[in-house]
Amino acid sequence: MRGRHSAPDIPFLGRSFALGRFDGKTALVTGASRGIGRGIARRLAHDGALVAVHYATSQDAAQEVVEEIEKDGGQAFAVGAELSDVSTVEAMFGALEEELEKRTSATSLNILVNNAAVGGPPTLPEDVTPELFDRYYAVNARAPFFVAQRALALIPDGGRIVNISSGITRSSQPDQIAYAISKSAVDQLTLHLALHVAPRGITVNTVAPGRTNNQSPIFSNPKAVEQMAQMSAFKRVGQPEDIADVVAFLASADSRWITGAFIDATGGTLLG
Ligand code: NAP
User: Fold this and answer.
1) Which amino acids are annotated catalytic?
2) 91-115, pLDDT tens digit by residue?
């Protein structure tokens, strides 16, 4: 793997951004032990951020992400918290502050990516139970709110919050109704928080992925992958890097004039 400082610049829309744009910055990516979160953590660290790799139960996987980042010349550490229980948010931030203090002699958090979420099998509206509804809501809606609320005590002026939603909040899929309701709360979190923190130059934006290869078993089934690919205008499923590049832009200084936005990162799935 290339070292962070020896890699060439990454081309982006005809321009190129110098690597190291997050040098001296710190980031927390929730749900970074696998899937899209892992891709985001690796990308932010590759560009120079010190990244807190959050996990719920997959401590070994989170540690692997930390090692991948370190091999790439970056800096990271893991923090664990089961976010369905909101009381763990304070414990997670306690551990985060301790690690930041140790590494940077400060507790500033420049970038928060609210990515952790739970999904589940198709469940039609008539089969949704209060327990299922509450589980989705606790992890996918309530936790990002309280994580953002607590993070704001550490985020300096000019900081960045990126909330990961889903294209499903802008299209109809009845058998994912409970999940979609919980994810649409993320869109509202962005909209209302963005205006509140704008006086401090903090931006808050939503990135909405479509079907993205998170290495779950369905992505090893060629027939299923082909079906999912047909949903995108580009006729392929997304990769974590497709989302991570968008998040990195929104986490950077270049996105300073964008806040409260819903960024469709579904590869054109919502075009119909
Ligand atoms: P994933 O592979 O299922 O990984 C989920 C991550 O969230 C893991 O790191 C997991 O930690 C963490 N997590 C799960 N339950 C948690 C809990 N109760 N408390 C704290 N952390 C928890 O996810 P993904 O598919 O990459 O999705 C990432 C984000 O993109 C989510 O917000 C999802 O809604 C959104 N999204 C994904 C897709 C897609 O096709 N993949 C499409 C649209 C939107 P552990 O590993 O420790 O369990």
Assistant:
1) 179
2) 999 999 999 999 999 999 999 999 9
125 part of a folded domain: yes
Please state the atom number of ligand 1 nearest to the C-alpha of residue 211.
40
Asked whether residue 4 is assigned to any structural domain, the reply reads no
Give the other-Cβ count within 10 Å of 132's Cβ: 14
pLDDT, tens digit, 9 for 90 and up, residues 173-229 = 999 999 999 999 999 999 999 999 999 999 999 999 999 999 999 999 999 999 999
162: Cβ below 6 Å to ligand 1? no
**Type and span of the H or E element at 74:** none
In a domain, 3, yes or no: no
What's the rounded Cα separation, in Å, for the pair 223 and 140? Answer: 29
Ligand 1 neighbourhood includes 213 CB (under 6 angstroms):
no
Residue 253 lies in a domain: yes
Ligand 1 centroid to residue 241 C-alpha, Å: 15
DSSP-derived secondary structure for 132-145: HHHHHHIIIIIHHH
